[in-house]
Write a structure and sequence with these properties.
Chain B has 164 residues and is α+β, with helices and mostly antiparallel strands. Chain B contains 5 helices and 5 strands, in the order ββαβββαααα. In chain B, strands 2-1-5-3-4 form a 5-stranded mixed beta sheet, with helices on one face. With 287 residues, chain C is an alpha+beta fold. Classes of the chains: A alpha+beta (807), B alpha+beta (164), C alpha+beta (287).
C-alpha cells in the first residue's frame, strides 16, 4: 500500500471491468477446436436415436410396422406413440399452455412430424432402420392458409382439443382451429381518433415464416442412472432450469433427481428455448434401455420441425393530423401458430410483447387484436433473435410510419422526429400498457442523420430518380430509416412467467480465500460471451480482476435457478443479479475491512479494488486481503466465508433503442438489392464490453439482412415444406454481407443496477425494418406503399414489373 | 458390407483403422479419432463447419466418404497449433479481434483461412470474403473474421520479411 | 443424412473402372469430386451397391493444347481450371465460369468431368461447353467415342452417356485470339445454382460480328444452346437492335421451372438480362 499503491487508473485497468474491450475467455478453447458441444459427447454404451417422420402434412396414421426395423442388427428399440402412452408421455405441454404430440398419436399435423423413434448402436444403423419402419397413412385435406383456418368449412386439425374451450388460458375459442384472441387497448377511443383524423392510412404487412437456424442444430444426450435413479440430460437448452422443471412435471421424476446441463451451445437465436420431441424420446429411451441415448437433428429436421419464427400477418392503421401528429394506431394480426402452439412467450402474453407496437412514438390511443390459428405447418413461434414478437411489432410500426410519411409527403425521418416520445416524457406510459423507462430518441436520431449526412443522401436519391426517369440508369436508390424501441429483460414476476415460473434470474458468488471467485448464473451463453462479460460486471463491483473470476452457467445441479438466455434478458436480469450479489459481497467485505482496520464501517470508502479509511488513504484493505480474512478473522458474531446469492426480480423491462439508416441500390432488371451502406446507432445503456457489443450488432444485422432479403420457410398448398436445406434457406455468406458501421449513445437504464439494457437482439429488430424501408423507399416515388418480404430477387423484380419498370 | 482398411495421416499422426466405406470423413474424424473440432452444421456441403485441410485443399468432410480419403494427409483445427502448444497466428487473431462468438463455425473457418493464406498471403478484404464464402457464420456477420484474417496475414508477412 | 451401404472401388486404370461399371450396371456409379453424387446418396435418393472412385487413375487430369484444341482431363478440378495458365491465356471464360461455381471448398473437389456428365441443368459448365462447341470423350467397354456437348443433354439427369461409359476428357476448339467472352450468372448467394446464367462468345471483324455462340444455364431441363440468338448477332455491329433480337430469341427458348429462385416469367426475363449483359461484356473484350 501507500507509496507502492498504483494509481486508481492503473488498478481499474487491471480489473478489466465494465467498459473494457476485454478479450473473451471462451475463445481459448473455441479457437483450438476444444469446445464441448453436445454432439461431441461420448458416453460408454451410448445409443443413437433417429426419427421416422411423416411425409404428409395432414394424415391419419393407420398402422405402424416396426418389425423390419427391429430386425436390423444393432437396433435396440423403436418407440411409437403406443409405447409412450403407458408413461403418459405421448403428448407434452408446450411453453404456451398447449400440448404437442411427442410421437404422432393417431394423426400427423405437419410434414416431417415425428412418428417413430429408432434407437440403435450408432447413427448409421439407426438411419438404415428408420427407412424400414413402415407407416400406413390416410391423407386428409391440408390447411396451410391462416386466413382460411377459421372458415366454417375448414378441416378440423386438432381433434385432440376439439371441445376444449381455451388454450393457454386466453379466452374462448371461436372455431376448432382458433387458438386465442388477444385484445389490448381502447377500441372505442381509437375509433373516435380515426373518425376525427385528418389523414388515415392502412396497410397489410406480412412478416414471413422464418427459422433461427443456428449453425449447431438441436440435440441432446439423455442418461438415466438406474442405480441412483438420477436422470442427466445434456443438450442444446437456452433455459436449462425450465427444462428441468418441465421434465419433472411430465415424467414425474422428482426435480432433484434430474440434472440438465447445457454444454457449449453453437448459437441459439431462440431455436433452443423450446422442449422438443427429440428430448423426450431420448429420455424415455434411456429410461427404458438403461444406457445413454443421443439424438442430434439434421439440418433438414431442424428447419422443418423445431422452432419457426414470425408468420405474422398484420393489418396496420394510423390516424394523424395533416401536419403529421399521429393520433391513433389500430392493428389486427393473424398469427399462424402451426399445428401446435409452441410459442415461447410469457404466460400472460400469447402474442408476446407485440403491444410494443406503438414503437418509439407518442401515440395517444391504440388498439390491437391478435388471432392465433392452427394450420398444418410446423409448431413453434419462437423469438428469433428478438424479444417476444418485438421484431414483428417494430416492423409493423416502422413500415407504417413510412406509409404515413408518403401519404403526408413528409420526410420519413422528419415524421419520426415529430412523433418521438420526448426525453422529458420518460418514464413514459404507452397506450398499450408499457412503462418505457428511459430514452433520448431525438439525440440518437440527430446523431444518426448527421453521421450519414441524410440531406446529402436524399439529394443523391433525387438525382438518381431523375437519371432513372431519363433512362440513364436502371438502378434505383433507396434510403431506409428505422428507429426502434425494444422491450427486453423479461421480466418482472408481476407480469412475466413461463408455465408459472417467474422470470427472475440469479447469480451466486463465492470468493475464494486467495482473492479469486466463482460466479454461477441461471442463464446460458450461446456465443454471447457471458463468461467474459459477467466477470467484468463483477470485477467492477467487487474489485477482483475479471481474470480471477470464473463464470459458470448451464448446469442445474450447481447453478442457481434462472429462466435462461433469450429475449435479451441475460444482461438486464442476470447481469443485474450479478451486480446485486456483488454488492452483497462488498457490504460484508466492508464490515470485515472495518474490523481489520479498527474503524467504523462508515469510515471506509470503496476505491476500485479496496476499502480505504476516509481521509487516510494509506490505511486500506484490498478485496484480496479481505477475502483471506473472511476465512480466518471475521468480526465476532459474523459467519466466516464470503459468498452471496441474488435472485433478481427486475422492477421493469429495459428499453434499448436505436437509429438505423440503410442505403440500398436496386437493379430493376434483376431484382438484386445491394446494401451500399448501413449505419447502426444503438443505445443499450451502460456498455459492459464494447468489443462484444459491436460483435453482437454485426451478427444481428447479418441475421436481419438474411430475413429481409431472403429467408422464408415456405410451404406448398399441400403442406410440403419448400427448400428445407441451406441450399435454399438464405444464410448470407461473407460475400453477400456488407460492412456494418456501428455507433452508440449511452442513456443508462434508471432501474438497472449498472444501467445496462441488453443489445443482442436490437440489430435484428431495427435491421429488418431499415432494410425493408430502403427497398420500399426505392420505389416510393412510383406510388408503392408496401411490398412484402422477403425482398429476394424475384419479389423485387415483380414489384418493379407491377410498377411498369421492367423492360 | 465389409469394413475397409484405411490408412491416413491426420495432424502428422499415421492412422490405420477399419471403417465402413460409407462412413463420412467427418464422422470418422469426430467419432473414431475423437477430433471433435470440425463440426456438422448443414449435412449438405453448404456451411463449411466440417472443413478440414486434405492434401493441401480445403475440403468439406461431410461430403466425402472416409474411403475416398484413404491415403490422404489431413489437418484439422486440432493440428493448427505447434506441437509445443504455440497457437497459430490465425487462432490468436481470431481471439484478438473477436472473430468468433458461439465458436461452432470457428474450427472450419480457421482451417479454411489457413489454406487461403497459403495460396494468397496478402489478400484484400474482398478476396478474404470470397475465400471464406464456403463457410457460414451465424454470429459475427463476418466483419471481425475478415479483420482477424487480415491481421494474421499481416503478421505472417511481417514474420516472413523479418526472417529473410 | 446417412448414405446406404456400398462397396468401394478405387481402380488404377480406366479399363478397370469401365470393367467395374460394366459388370455392376445400374448398381454402380463413378465418383469424381462427389459434390453432386454424395449429397444424393446421403438423402438416399441415390442408392447404389458399388462406388467407383476415379481418383487413382493416371492421365485424367490437366490441360494441354493440341492441334488447335484444348484438351482437359475429366478429373481436372474447378480450382485447377481457375489456376491453369493455358486456359487463362487461351480460354479465360473457363476460369470466369469456374469461379462462379459453388464455393472454394467445392471447387477444390468438383471436376469438369463430373460437372458436365451428370446432367444437372443447374451445373454451369454444360452451357459453357455448348457455347464453346466442346466434345466429350467417353470410354466404354467397346472403346472410346465422342459426343458433342450440343447434343449430349436429353433431360434432367438424362444424357447421351451410357451407364457403362465414363467421360475421360473434354475437347474444346481453341477460341481465336481476340475473341470476346463472358459468363453472366445470377444466383441468390454463393453456393447456389443459377437463377439464370448465360455464356457468350463472339469474334468481331471489321466492326461486324463474325462468329457468336450463346448458351443458357438452369432455365430448362437441359442447358440450352441458343443458336438463333447467336445468329441474330452475326453480321451485325452488335448494335442495340441486334442485341434486342438476340435477347428475345434467347428468352424464347428459355423454359425454366418455377422454384424458390423465382417464377417462370422472372427466370425467363432474367435469362434475357444475363444474355444482354454477357453480350455487352463479351463485346467490350473482343478485339
Amino acid at each position: 500500500m501507500n507509496e507502492a499503491t498504483p494509481s486508481a487508473e492503473v488498478r481499474t485497468q487491471k480489473l478489466q471491468g465494465l467498459g473494457t474491450a476485454r478479450k473473451r475467455v471462451e475463445d481459448v478453447r473455441f479457437t483450438q477446436g476444444k469446445g464441448n458441444y453436445v454432439d461431441d459427447m461420448k458416453l460408454p454404451g451410448m445409443l443413437f436415436g433417429e426419427f421416422v417422420r411423416s411425409p404428409y402434412a395432414h394424415a391419419r396414421v393407420k398402422s405402424i410396422d416396426t418389425s423390419a426395423a427391429l430386425a436390423v442388427p444393432g437396433v435396440k428399440a423403436v418407440l411409437t406413440a403406443e409405447d409412450l402412452k403407458p408413461l403418459n408421455l405421448h403428448w407434452m405441454p408446450t411453453l404456451a399452455g398447449d400440448v404437442q404430440a411427442v410421437l404422432a398419436d393417431e394423426k400427423v399435423l405437419f410434414q416431417f412430424q415425428e412418428v417413430a423413434f429408432v434407437v440403435a448402436e450408432d447413427r448409421y444403423i439407426a438411419s438404415d432402420a428408420a427407412q424400414l419402419v413402415e407407416v400406413e397413412y390416410e391423407e386428409l385435406p391440408v390447411l396451410v392458409d391462416p386466413f382460411k383456418a377459421m372458415d366454417p368449412d375448414a378441416v378440423i386439425l386438432r381433434e385432440d382439443i376439439k371441445d376444449q374451450e381455451e388454450v393457454g388460458g386466453h379466452g374462448p375459442r371461436r372455431h376448432p382451429n382458433h387458438v386465442f384472441t388477444w385484445d389490448v387497448g381502447d377500441k372505442a377511443n381509437v375509433e373516435a381518433a380515426f373518425d376525427a383524423a385528418d389523414v388515415t392510412v392502412e396497410e397489410f404487412i406480412s412478416y414471413q415464416r422464418v427459422h433461427p437456424c443456428p449453425l449447431e442444430t438441436c440435440g441432446c444426450v439423455a442418461s438415466m442412472d438406474a442405480i441412483n435413479g438420477k436422470l442427466t440430460v445434456w443438450g442444446t437448452f437456452q433455459a436449462p432450469h425450465a427444462v428441468r422443471t418441465v421434465a419433472s412435471l411430465i415424467s414425474n421424476i422428482p426435480e432433484h433427481k434430474i440434472r440438465i446441463v447445457s454444454p457449449d451451445i453453437g448459437g441459439g437465436f431462440g431455436n433452443k428455448v423450446g422442449v422438443y420431441p427429440g428430448y423426450v424420446c431420448s429420455i424415455v429411451a434411456s429410461i427404458v434401455l438403461g444406457v445413454p441415448v443421443k439424438w442430434i437433428e439434421s439440418r433438414m429436421e431442424n428447419l422443418s420441425s423445431t422452432a419457426f419464427a414470425r408468420d405474422y400477418h398484420m393489418t396496420g392503421e394510423l390516424a394523424a393530423t395533416k401536419d403529421g401528429r399521429i393520433t391513433g394506431l389500430r392493428c389486427h394480426v393473424i398469427a399462424n401458430q402451426g399445428a401446435f402452439d409452441a410459442c415461447a412467450d410469457p404466460t400472460q402474453y400469447p402474442a408476446g410483447f407485440f403491444n410494443i407496437v406503438t414503437g418509439s412514438y407518442d401515440i395517444p390511443v391504440a388498439y390491437l387484436s391478435v388471432d392465433g390459428v392452427y394450420t398444418n405447418k410446423a409448431p413453434g413461434g419462437v423469438a428469433y433473435r428478438c424479444s417476444f414478437r418485438v421484431t414483428e411489432a417494430s416492423y409493423l410500426i416502422e413500415r407504417m410510419i413510412d406509409v404515413l410519411a408518403r401519404k403526408l409527403e413528409i420526410d420519413p425521418a422528419e415524421l419520426r422526429i415529430r412523433n418521438f416520445i420526448k426525453k422529458e416524457q420518460f418514464p413514459y406510459q404507452s397506450a398499450l400498457g408499457w412503462e418505457y423507462d428511459s430514452g433520448d430518441y431525438h439525440t440518437a436520431m440527430d446523431k444518426a442523420l448527421q453521421t450519414v449526412d441524410y440531406p446529402a443522401l436524399r439529394a443523391e436519391q433525387a438525382a438518381n430518380r431523375e437519371a432513372f426517369a431519363n433512362g440513364e440508369t436502371r438502378s434505383l436508390m433507396g434510403v431506409g430509416v428505422a428507429f426502434f424501441t425494444e422491450i427486453v429483460g423479461a421480466g418482472p414476476i408481476k407480469n412475466c412467467d413461463i408455465l408459472g415460473l417467474g422470470m427472475f434470474d440469479s447469480c451466486e458468488i463465492r470468493i475464494h480465500p486467495t482473492g479469486s471467485a466463482i460466479a454461477r448464473l441461471g442463464t446460458i451463453s450461446q456465443g454471447q460471451g457471458h463468461a467474459t462479460t459477467f466477470a467484468q460486471i463483477l470485477a467492477t463491483e467487487i474489485g477482483l480482476p475479471a481474470d480471477n473470476i470464473t463464470v459458470e452457467e448451464g448446469d442445474t445441479d450447481t447453478a442457481p435457478y434462472g429462466l435462461g438466455t433469450y429475449g435479451s434478458r441475460s444482461t438486464p436480469v442476470a447481469g443485474a443479479a450479478t451486480a446485486m450479489a456483488g454488492r452483497k459481497i462488498r457490504a460484508k467485505a466492508q464490515m470485515i475491512a472495518a474490523y481489520l482496520l479498527e474503524v467504523h464501517d462508515d469510515d471506509l470508502e470503496w476505491d476500485v479494488d479496496r476499502f480505504v479509511v476516509k481521509g487516510a488513504p494509506e490505511r486500506a484493505k484490498t478485496m484480496a486481503e479481505i477475502a483471506f480474512a473472511a476465512y480466518n478473522s471475521v468480526p465476532p458474531g459474523m459467519e466466516p466465508g464470503l459468498e452471496a446469492v441474488s435472485y433478481y426480480d427486475p422492477p421493469n423491462m429495459t428499453y434499448p433503442y436505436g437509429a438505423y439508416v440503410c442505403v440500398a441500390d436496386i437493379d430493376v432488371d434483376t431484382g438484386v438489392t445491394d446494401i451500399r451502406r448501413f449505419y447502426a446507432l444503438d443505445d443499450c445503456g451502460t456498455r459492459i464490453n464494447p468489443m462484444i457489443i459491436d460483435g453482437q450488432v454485426h451478427g444481428g444485422l447479418t441475421e436481419a439482412l438474411g430475413i429481409a432479403l431472403g429467408q422464408e420457410i415456405d410451404y406448398d398448398e399441400i403442406g410440403n415444406i419448400k427448400g428445407g436445406s441451406l441450399l435454399d434457406y438464405f444464410l448470407p455468406t461473407a460475400v453477400e454481407t456488407p460492412v456494418w458501421e456501428t455507433d452508440f449513445t449511452e442513456v443508462p437504464s434508471p432501474h438497472h443496477p449498472i444501467g445496462a439494457k441488453g443489445v443482442g437482439e436490437s440489430p435484428n429488430v431495427g435491421g429488418v425494418s431499415a432494410i425493408s424501408n430502403a427497398v420500399n423507399d426505392a420505389f416510393a416515388h412510383f406510388g408503392l406503399t408496401h411490398t412484402q418480404m422477403p425482398h429476394d430477387h424475384w419479389r423485387v423484380w415483380k414489384t418493379a414489373e407491377r410498377l411498369g419498370l421492367t423492360g | 458390407m465389409s469394413k475397409l482398411h484405411v490408412q491416413l495421416t491426420v495432424n502428422g499422426r499415421e492412422i490405420e483403422a477399419l471403417a465402413e466405406p460409407r462412413m463420412l470423413l467427418i464422422h470418422f474424424l469426430r467419432e473414431q479419432l475423437n477430433l471433435t473440432g470440425p463440426h456438422i452444421g448443414c449435412d449438405t456441403s453448404h456451411c463449411g463447419a466440417c472443413t478440414v485441410d486434405l492434401d493441401g485443399k480445403s475440403v468439406k468432410s461431410c461430403t466425402m466418404f472416409v474411403a475416398q480419403a484413404d491415403g490422404a494427409e489431413i489437418r484439422t483445427i486440432e493440428g493448427m497449433a505447434q506441437p509445443d502448444g504455440t497457437l497459430h497466428v490465425l487462432q490468436e487473431m481470431f481471439r484478438e479481434y473477436h472473430g468468433l462468438q458461439c465458436g461452432f463455425c470457428t474450427p472450419g473457418m480457421i482451417t479454411r483461412a489457413y489454406r487461403l493464406l497459403q495460396e494468397n498471403p496478402n489478400p484484400s478484404d474482398e478476396e478474404i470474403r470470397f475465400g471464406i464464402s464456403g463457410n457460414l457464420c451465424r454470429c459475427t456477420g463476418y466483419q471481425n473474421i475478415v479483420v482477424a484474417i487480415r491481421a494474421a496475414a499481416d503478421q505472417l508477412n511481417a514474420a516472413k520479411e523479418a526472417a529473410e | 443424412m446417412i448414405s446406404g451401404s456400398f462397396e468401394y472401388h478405387r481402380p488404377k486404370s480406366l479399363d478397370e473402372a469401365v470393367g467395374l461399371l460394366d459388370q455392376h450396371g445400374d448398381d454402380a456409379r463413378v465418383v469424381a469430386g462427389g459434390h453432386s453424387l454424395i449429397p444424393m446418396m446421403k438423402l438416399r435418393m441415390a442408392m447404389l451397391d458399388h462406388l467407383i472412385d476415379l481418383q487413382a487413375i493416371d492421365g485424367l487430369k490437366g490441360v494441354r493444347e493440341e492441334g488447335g484444341n484444348l484438351l482437359i482431363g475429366a478429373m481436372t478440378t474447378q480450382s485447377e481450371l481457375i489456376a491453369d495458365p493455358t486456359l487463362a491465356a487461351k480460354c479465360p471464360i473457363m476460369a470466369e465460369t469456374a469461379l462462379q461455381i459453388a464455393d472454394p471448398q467445392v471447387r477444390y473437389c468438383g471436376t469438369i468431368g463430373g460437372n458436365v456428365a451428370n446432367g444437372d441443368p443447374g451445373n454451369d459448365m454444360p452451357a459453357l461447353m455448348q457455347a464453346l462447341d466442346a466434345t466429350y470423350i467417353a470410354q466404354g467397354p467397346n472403346g472410346t467415342r465422342e459426343i458433342a456437348a450440343r447434343v449430349f443433354y436429353e433431360a434432367v439427369f438424362f444424357t447421351a452417356l451410357q451407364d457403362n461409359e465414363i467421360i475421360t476428357a473434354v475437347r474444346i476448339p481453341t477460341p481465336p485470339d481476340g475473341h470476346g467472352h463472358a459468363y453472366e450468372k445470377q444466383k441468390r448467394k454463393i453456393g447456389d445454382y443459377a437463377t439464370a446464367a448465360a455464356a457468350v462468345l463472339l469474334t468481331m471483324s471489321g466492326g461486324r460480328c463474325a462468329t457468336a455462340a450463346i448458351a443458357l444455364t438452369n432455365v430448362g431441363d437441359t442447358p440450352l444452346y441458343a443458336e438463333d440468338a447467336a445468329a441474330a448477332l452475326i453480321g451485325t455491329a452488335v448494335d442495340a437492335a441486334a442485341i434486342d433480337r438476340a435477347v428475345a430469341l434467347a428468352e424464347g427458348i428459355a423454359s425454366p421451372a418455377a422454384d424458390a429462385r423465382g417464377p417462370v416469367d422472372f427466370r425467363t426475363k432474367l435469362a434475357g438480362v444475363m444474355v444482354r449483359r454477357a453480350i455487352a461484356r463479351a463485346l467490350e473484350r473482343a478485339a
